[in-house]
Request: fold
Amino acid sequence: MPEGDTLNRIADVLRPLLVGREVVGARGRPGGAQLERVVGSRVESVDNRAKHLLIGFDDGLTLHTHLGLHGSWHRYRRGEGWRRAPARAVAVIETADWIAVCFDAPTVELIETRALAIHPALGGLGGDAGADKFDAHRALVALRVPGRARMAVGDALLDQSAVAGLGNVYRSELCFIERIDPFTPVADVPDGKLLTMLEHGARLIRRNSAGGARVTTAPGTAGNLYVYGRTGRPCRRCGTPIRSRVTRAHASANPRRVYWCPTCQPRSDAQD
Reply:
């Protein structure tokens, strides 16, 4: 699933192509968002809130998309061939020069801009780890609420109502960097470690928002990632084979695979 840095990049790419431009054509998937309502309006803003993209129009409407596991946004010059089948397009915004196309996203809705604050998905987001003014201390307080005390820290980092923008790659990488077993209950992780993970995650998202391959490793380290996607391969620190396991994160119907090194991130209990 795209993480906060991916959405930062998408917003940065689409913003100069759309903002201030008149919408000359728009459509959604059959039975989906009635995007023809924004034709003739101008794009006022292109922003993201963690993993959510928001395109605002001057007629008081906002297009909200969440890419889920397989969605993506593309941009094309007029007349340029699309890299995916048109039937997979779920939102199309056309200006005189550019066409922005969202493919395969599960969430595409056109809502009143004034209703964003009470939107059930957007209003309940925690602090955006990819935002310039991210407050790691506030996110720490959110992680410390009693209901998350026994939650595995790896799952807690995916809880968008506590801290938004971190995804499966970052939760695995941050736990490795801080030598914390991802299955450790949040209550057993010291404040200093949690705060460091949050601050480091925010720095990585902002750095990786600039483009290019996502990198979490320190300068001079072979490879871009420490553990994510490396099941059975040697740990970059100690050589132990990396392990992985599918977990079901809190409040998420999507199973995710977490990766860790059993030597660098030793368990504090007997759980296999």
Summary: The chain has two domains: 4-118, 127-260.
